Amino acid sequence: FYLFIYFFQERIRVGKELLEAKRMEEENERKRIMALRKAEKEEEKRAREKIRQKLEEDKAERRRRLGLPPEDPSTAKPAAPVVEEKKSSLPIRPATKTEQMRECLRSLKQNHKEDDAKVKRAFQTLLTFVGNVARNPDEEKYRKIRLTNQSFQDRVGSFKGGIEFLELCEFERVEGSEFLFLPRDKVDMAVLNSAGSELDSAIKNPFFGVL
C-alpha cells in the first residue's frame, strides 16, 4: 500500500516537473519570437529612414538643378541632439552573441549586395549547417566542415562573413587541418537556436541588410 502511494506521489512529482519544463520552454520560445520581431521592426525602421534620407537628398538635388534656393532649414523637422547626448552618456554595453551574428549576416549581405541570389543561398546553407547540428548533436559528420570543399567555398566560404558566422556558432578552425569542427561539448542549443532565428530573419525579411 505504501509502495503504491510512493509511486503515485512520484508520478505526480514527475508530472509537475514535466509541466514546468514545458512551461519554461514555451516561455523561452515566446521571448525568442518577441526578440526576433523586435529586431525585424528595427531593421525595417532603419531601412525606411535610409529611404527617407535618400528622398530628401533627391529633393535637394532637384531644387539645385532647377536653380531654386535650398529649402529653408527652419521648416525642416528639428533634430533631437538632447536624445543623442543622453544616449552617449550611457555605458556602452558589449554586443551579445546574437547581435554579433546579426551584424555578421548584415555585413555579409552588404559586402555582396550585387548578388542577392547567392547571398540568400549562403544564408540557406548556413541555416542547413546549424539545423543539422541542432537536430543531430551527436553526429560528428554534421559538426565537421571541410573548408576546401568546392561546394562549401561556392556557397559560404568565398563570402566574407560566412566562416565568421560559423565560428560564432562555436565551430573552430582545426590547426593544421582543412576542417571547421564543432566539439560535442561546445554544442550550445541556445546559440544554435539564436543562429537559426537570425538566419531565418535574414532570409525572409526584405529589409534585412539594407543599411
UniProtKB/TrEMBL annotation:
Q: Which Pfam families does this UniProt record tie to the protein?
A: PUB
The protein's name in its UniProt record: UBX domain-containing protein 4-like
Q: Which SMART domains match?
A: PUG
Q: Where is the composition biased (Basic and acidic residues)?
A: 34-61
Return the PANTHER family for the record. Answer: F13M7.16 PROTEIN (PTHR46713)
Which SUPFAM superfamilies does the entry mention? Answer: PUG domain-like (SSF143503)
Annotated InterPro entries = PUB-like_dom_sf (IPR036339), PUB_domain (IPR018997)
Residue segments, region Disordered: 34-90
